[in-house]
Amino acid sequence: HPRLLDDEEIGSNALIVLFGGIETTEAMIANALWAMLSHPPTLARARTSTADLMACVEESLRWDAAVQTATRYAAPGATVHGVAIPEGDLVQCMLGAANRDPAHYADPDRYDPWRPATVPHLAFAFGRHFCLGAAVARVEAEVALASLLAAWPEAALDHGRSRSPTGHEFRKPAALWLRRSAA
User: Fold this and answer.
1) What is the arithmetic mean of pLDDT over 15-23?
2) 24: how many CB neighbours lie within 10 A of its CB?
């Protein structure tokens, strides 16, 4: 018999959904733009089709996701590589590290939107903890980036004023400046 959430639990969940829908989506779009502008050949290809643009977004999610870690509590009977984790222990899941695991991704530190998708990235987590807003975030990224690239067809990264994405848990560029042309 499921238990109803109390007002405090409803409020806490609403804050998580709101935060996830604003801050992390903004960072996801900024990180994808940073990745494309930092790799001009991929930017040129991203301008050619929605499929290529979204390949760039998906690779940026793997390469430099907005959310790098996820804190969870161990379930009963949790075992990782033969090590038992007591029920209720705090576990820090390093999603960013998993997305660059060389056992799953060839040349994992290279940004390559057209790499074979042998393993799905974990930018939106996995299983029962998969991000509720993942589909909406992808649509927002597509609309925002396609609109920007259409409005500024000669957009280029201003390397002097921009800063690469940073952050241990949440990651995005501290500053992202564009110029209207590469020249």
Assistant:
1) 80
2) 21
